[in-house]
Amino acid sequence: MSELCVDVRGLTRRFGDFVAVDNVDFEIRAGRIFGFLGPNGAGKSTTIRMLLGIVRPSEGQGRVLGYDILKESAQIRARVGYMAQKFSLYEDLTPSENLDFFAGLSGLEGAAWHKRRDLVVEMVKLGDYLTEMTGSLPGGVRQRLALAVTLLHEPELIFLDEPTGNVDPALRRYFWELIVQLSQAGKTVMVTSHYMDEVERCDKICFIHSGKLIGEGSPRELKSNTIKKELLSLSTSRRAEAMQVLKGIKGVENPFPAGTSIRFLFDGNRTELEELLKRERFSSEELEQARPNLEDVFIYLSKEGVA
Amino acid sequence: MIHRLKALIKKEFVQMRRDRLTLAMMLLLPLVQLALFGFAINTDIKKVPTAVLDRSNSASSRELLQAFTNSDYYRIQHRVGRESEIVELLDRGEVKVGIVIPYDYEEKIISHQPTDVQVIVDATDPTTASSAMANSAGVAGFINGRLSQKGTRQSQLFEPTGAVSVKTRLWYNPDLQTSHYIVPGLIGVILTMTMMMITSMAIVKERETGTLEQLVTTPLRPVELMLGKIVPYIFVGYVQTTVALVVAILVFGVPIRGSLIGLYSVTFLYIVSYLGLGLLVSTIARSQQQAMQMSFFIFLPTILLSGFMFPRAGMPDLVQKISLIIPLTYFLELLRGVVLKGVGLGLLWRWILPLTGLMVGFFALATYRFRKSFE
Question: Could you say which DSSP state residue B65 is in?
């Protein structure tokens, strides 16, 4: 029990006729980085908000840190950190005032708080901005401030909803370093994203699509075990032409250009495929087996339905 | 609980200080409104332009006209030779009152016979008309009194003397100074406006900017958040009340006859009533714009039906009943009771109790709605 930080069963949330989250089960083990992946509107935020008790589930149940999400959200909120997708701090306060305010709400005061604040400020490198007006800070700094507020009461479990949604690549990398750091310090992190490349660092990933979980596992497991068809790559300089040709061949699915090649799924006879390509003056040397990345896995799963 | 409330209140004050425009509004509003309305809303009509046709042109008629002028109500601007000229001046709106004195005015007075002086009043504005009537009766009474002192008992000018005479005595505001009546009420109106507008924004603004999302994931309880929104503005409300009272006393000479402690105590009930109502609006409105519109819809009936503008006694039953759920209705009675009548709170329970009820009701309703939407 203590090993499981989050454990939800059959979690469902409807808004009118729209099913935002549809019968979702998952669990998160303590100390792990859990990636929740899916496109915008897939139900990621709604799921987190149900875990925090901000949104009431239409059906299902769950426990966070051992507390019932339906009845004990106060206990849960006191022990978790939450960084919302939308920036949600006061723009007319300085970072320092924002930190003091949220610390006050969490009951942090006096010398203990000052020590904690110095630590958090150092961690997210906020020192130079403490007395400027939050509303005039660049997006990246604001995002770091939001993370600082999330961490100030030393939560065991941290929910980060699209922390890298609107930040530049350098800051994205920095954020992921921080997430790994937190995990090494024994914290459990649940992070949502729609960038498939950055979640390679997660211990476990769940894919969510239109409210349904469509796959879960470690990045390695997902990449090696999910795709039941062949993933092929055709290197060619005539990409537009190749796309046309591939679309006409039976057994070829989802051809899409990636760099200098075209990747596609194939379910059929490889020799026949090579023959057909040769007729269009594509040589068999140009065709090779590709290693699936998470994006391939997600696209495969979202087409195939629940794995 | 205390440390969370402390953090909230401190935050509200910092934000208040930063928002210069709103701060200026809150502090200058009482001054501007008092100055505007205190001077402008004035139903004590004076120096109404008047035309006179004096056919008698005698010592007696001049004495009569002097009495009209002395009343300070009439200002004789035109002396004309024909009655048609009076009609023309009234038509053109150059004068509001015409006075016609007959040829035989002096003879009648001397021979102790009744005589008629005609006063024509432009009654398109009922307020002017009714006070013109009251004033001319006053002038007549004065002249009759003078004549009877001189021993000319028989003379009757406008009123037949009867066995019963009504004597009106004006209490509390004997000079019928409108400002004494309007200004204390204005304190209530100003408080309504600022208290409700500010708190109706309070929650909805936190929701619009997304900060509410962060707040609800802290250990903060809904009641604490509501208290945190209210306490700073109770303070603001008292600052406004004080500014308004100082202006009322120094500029308008409004006498404060009752106890200030009593006044400040009932003000608390009133401020919190409107803060509660504002919060209620804030839990219903989806955007700051909606909140603004809704508070405006509440504000208008507050002014028009509470008895601030028009006496409630003249309103239909249904409207009078509606006015019973308007906190200003009770606060006006309390304000006028304490300020003008100098009555102690002990005599004002019939206003204090329902106001307390409304305060508790609005606050409870707001808390209920608030919990429902954020738990």
Answer: H
Q: Nearest by CB to A54, which of B3, B19, B217?
A: B217
pLDDT (tens digit per residue) in A151-192: 999 999 999 999 988 788 888 888 999 999 999 999 999 999
On whether any CB of chain B is under 8 Å from the CB of A104, the answer is yes
Give the residue carrying structure tokens 């149940």.
A61
B211: closest chain A residue by CA = A88
B7:A100 CB<8 A: yes
A84/B213 CB distance under 8 A: yes
Q: Would the CATH topology of A4-224 be identical to that of A228-291?
A: no
CA B110 vs. chain centroid, Å, equals 47
Nearest to A97 among B3, B14, B218 (CB): B14
Distance CA B56, CA A134 (A): 84
Cβ neighbours of residue A252 under 8 Å, at least 6 residues apart?
A: A246, A264, A265, A266, A273
- According to CATH, what is the number of the domain A228-291? 3.30.70
- Measured CA to CA, the distance from residue A207 to residue A296 in angstroms comes to 12
Q: What is the distance in angstroms between the Cα of B291 and the nearest Cα belonging to chain A? A: 20
Q: pLDDT per residue over B6-33, tens digit each?
A: 999 999 999 999 988 888 888 888 888 8
Which residue does chain B place closest to A105, by CA atoms?
A: B4
CB contact under 8 A, A102 and B213: no
The pTM for the full model equals: 0.78
For A:131-190, CB contacts with B below 8 A are 149
SS3 A75: helix
Asked if residues B86 and B100 have their Cβ atoms less than 8 Å apart, the reply is yes
Cβ atoms B9, B34 nearer than 8 A: no
Alpha-carbon distances, residue B190 vs A176, B187, B199, B237 (angstroms): 53, 5, 14, 9
Q: What share of chain B is helix, strand, coil (3-state, %, to 5)?
A: 70, 5, 25
Q: What is the pLDDT of residues A95-150, one digit of tens each?
A: 999 999 999 998 888 899 999 999 999 999 998 999 999 999 998 899 999 999 99
Of B7, B14, B210, the CB nearest to A86: B210
Q: List the domain boundaries for chain A.
A: 4-224, 228-291
Question: Domain spanning A4-224: which superfamily?
Answer: P-loop containing nucleotide triphosphate hydrolases (3.40.50.300)
Chain B residues lying within 8 Å of A53, measured CB to CB: 375
C-beta atoms of A84 and B210 within 8 A: yes
